[in-house]
Sequence to fold (557 residues):
Amino acid sequence: MSYKSDIEIAQECKMRHVLDVAREAGIGEEFIEQYGNYKAKIDLSALKKEGENGKLVLVTAITPTPAGEGKTTTTIGLADSLRRIGKHPVVALREPSLGPVFGIKGGAAGGGYAQVVPMEDINLHFTGDFHAIGAANNLLAAMLDNHIQQGNALGIDPKKITWHRCVDMNDRQLRFVVDGLGGRANGVPREDSFDITVASEIMAVLCLSSSITDLKERLARIIVGYTYSDDPVTAGDLKAAGAMAALLKDALKPNLVQTLEGTPALVHGGPFANIAHGCNSVIATKMAMKYGDYAVTEAGFGADLGAEKFLDIKCRMAGLTPSAVVIVATVRALKMHGGVPKDALGEENLEALEAGLPNLLRHVSNIKNVYRLPAVVAVNKFPTDTDAEVALVIKKCRELGVNTVLSDVWAKGSAGGEELAREVVRLCEEERGDFTFSYEDGASVKEKIEAVVKKVYGGDGVAYSAPALKQIEKAEQMGFTSAPVCIAKTQYSFSDDPAKKGAPEGFTVTVRNVKVSAGAGFIVVLTGDIMTMPGLPKSPAAERIDVDENGRISGLF
Fold:
């Protein structure tokens, strides 16, 4: 059987005018700033709408594998299915980064018959938010180096600069560079580095800000380096916050698009969950809750990354409480966690499935027992899944008191997710969670890191490098003890070793660097070999992306 590609399905969609989509959501035309007929930004004053907020539903997943899980596809399909059964949902997603689009992962607009459109625009430049974030990041870098060049009145030590430049592309060549070469007129020579834009603190600041005023205050607090006497230097000290906010004023407004079935969708912000906090903007989530009776959102990668940060960072800062959590899994991916190679996943293998199931069960247990939230497992259906395999997943999840529902939204759109939608409604209306963070505000930095490692990852403990210990001591001296931790870790394992599949035990997580993100309001903890600038694979997706003379794009996925 031949299947249409995601981009072919998206290009066949007859989209509704964005004003019609806004009208269905109840967003007045006076709040809409159109970017053509199918995209718009929503003015922040739309958040002043009075009335009860909708239920917040978080979609997360098992630890990702090359077999795929379909978390974004399930998120979009769930929203369409809720609409199909008579509810009024709004879905809130992250914006894709150009790095993965042209690299190995592809885009982030869903798949099959559960996508947001216009797919090509969303996966490429969209409304320019990421360009604005990159410009603001690099303006701050330019002003920092210019300050040093013009006499360095603040006494910044060039060897203690912590602010990186950024570009929204996978480019390992830029991880470590030397710049300022060519003589005195061309700057002060120093070692420098680039992050991918989605790892920039500006991305986190934008996604956690509640208003222009909050944005400016957060930008001013960003620490860019330290003086010769080891005092922090901020963007406010460099008088950069106002200009940066001017670049970001439109990027702060959430973007309105639609699903293939016309459900309102807010796509805004896009920090990676392995190297950043992995959630769309607080503003978009709150907007979805204002205008939908169900706000369906997702967090990046597995629940140990995206969901942990959504719950411990975003919900803590924004005062949000999810009503239900959907944990997405596939039989194929679970068999891969059980040791089956990718080319043998189509064959029934109950032994391998049983060996891989602990990965799902640990994620389920975390949501139910650590965060104390109602949950359902959505098994993203593949044609090769056998009845016996599905029955085994259902049996193991029921032992933890969690229902399992088959989801076929990739192939059938909203019709394939009705059972999931009804179970989510039941959880929201009948179950009462007792939402709890995995650590308290008053815990020390090390206690917070260790709580996540032991409670969420299932590890035995944490090993700290000598620089990390000094950095933690410095952060606490500077008054950041109460800040949550944002742990940068491989997405491929509960541990910091991507080779440890399933639900490993007896491991230690190694913390090699700790950095205060004062603007975002959290402490970044770098573990293992995690990089903040990805590289391209041997055969990047960019080799297969093209556009014809009519402007029709091919090769995106």
User: Anything to note?
Assistant: Residues 129-149 form the longest helix (21 residues). The two ends are 19 Å apart (CA to CA). The mean pLDDT is 94. The CA atoms of residues 143 and 238 lie 7 Å apart.
